[in-house]
Amino acid sequence: MSKIQEIDNKMIEFTMQKFHHYGLDRLQSQIYAVLLVEPEPVSLEYLAKRTDYSLASVSKAVKFLSRFNLITKTRKPGTKKIYVSGQKNMLEMVEKKMILSLEIEVTPTKRIVPELIDEYKQAMKTASKTDKESAKKKVKIMEEYLKNMLLLERLQIKGLEMIRKELI
């Protein structure tokens, strides 16, 4: 094994541990780690050989990783063979996740939760004593949730501003 391969293996091991803590399983972490050190896209067959997993297992893990924008799948012209590369720019990856969070979490929460809080408050006017007490607790929970989402939105907007300054 060459010195370069030894260093590659150290980087792969380090990256595997880091991404395993984020909830990726061993194979998913290993695939992403291998792709992180590979300068060019590699085939699924290469990943199967490199990880000692079956082609079917690698294919399933690649599909999972691509859903989270950790990797990109491509085909070479004139072939059916799939090649994959890892997202190497962490700032771009975080930027995409922040934008997605704003779109699917924060924006709908800002629209829907205040309406639900108002509905609870209106329903409390004619509710039984037991239902009224329960609704009061639920309103507090929802108001706190909304407050947290608004804070998350401010943090994400500031974070996006910082990331975009760095990417320019």
Question: How does the SSE layout of this entry go?
Answer:
Elements: H1 3-21, H2 26-37, E1 42-43, H3 44-51, H4 55-67, E2 71-75, E3 82-86, H5 90-124, H6 129-167
Antiparallel strand pairs: 1-3, 2-3
Helix pairs in contact: 1-2, 2-4, 3-4, 5-6
Concise overview:
This protein has 168 residues and is mostly helical. It has six helices and three strands, in the order ααβααββαα. The protein folds into two domains: 3-86, Arc Repressor Mutant, subunit A, CATH 1.10.10; 90-167.
Description of the molecule:
There is one protein chain. The protein folds into 2 domains: 3-86, Arc Repressor Mutant, subunit A (Orthogonal Bundle); 90-167. The chain is elongated and about 75 Å long. Strand 2 and strand 3 form a beta hairpin. 14% of the residues are buried. The model has no long low-confidence stretch (mean pLDDT 92). The protein is built from 6 helices and 3 strands. The two termini are 39 Å apart. It is 75% helix and 7% strand. A 3-stranded antiparallel beta sheet has the order 1-3-2. The protein has 168 residues and is mainly alpha-helical. The longest helix has 39 residues, at 129-167.
